[in-house]
Design a protein that fits this description.
Blueprint lengths: L3 H12 L2 E6 L5 E5 L13 H11 L5 E4 L4 H14 L6 H10 L5 H10 L4 H22 L4
Antiparallel strand pairs: 1-2, 1-3
Helix pairs in contact: 1-6, 3-4, 3-6, 4-5
């Protein structure tokens, strides 16, 4: 039902802090600002965007929400990336990433290590594919994928 391009777009929107909904009636994808964010102020939106947002908020039962990946699943993705690094390649990086995940503030620690490595682009690709898979799973559970 949904193309890979649409799935990629939904995953990117959610990762950037937006909320994505699928209207049950016609399967249209709606992306709106995350009203749960501490930085959200509806009055800063154009009138049309305010109306669209209110339409979703006041009629949530008409939509399926595509949830963002929870932190425990994101942590698992980071672990999987570290585990997937070739031992023969940069074994020290693999160890540093695994250690970073076991320290205080593991997300920040992981980011710091990966940002100063040659595997930064590979991490982004790995994470993006995991996010697309997360969206696909939700669409399948809703029986609309």
């Amino acid at each position: 039902m949904f193309s890979e391009k649409q799935i990629k777009s939904i995953a990117e929107e959610i990762h950037s802090g937006m909320k994505c909904f699928i209207r049950k009636e016609d399967k249209e994808v709606l992306t709106v600002m995350d009203w749960d964010s501490a930085f959200f102020d509806i009055s800063c939106l154009p009138e049309e965007a305010q109306q669209e947002l209110k339409g979703v908020q006041y009629n949530l039962l008409a939509y399926h929400e595509i949830e963002k990946m929870p932190s425990n699943k994101t942590f698992e993705v980071m672990e999987n990336f570290a585990d997937a690094l070739p031992s023969a390649g940069d074994y020290r990086l693999k160890i540093r990433l695994i250690e970073a995940l076991h320290r205080r503030r593991p997300f920040a620690q992981f980011k710091n290590v990966i940002d100063h490595s040659n595997y930064r682009a590979a991490w982004f690709e790995f994470r993006e594919e995991a996010q697309r898979e997360w969206v696909r799973e939700q669409l399948e559970e809703m029986e609309i994928g």
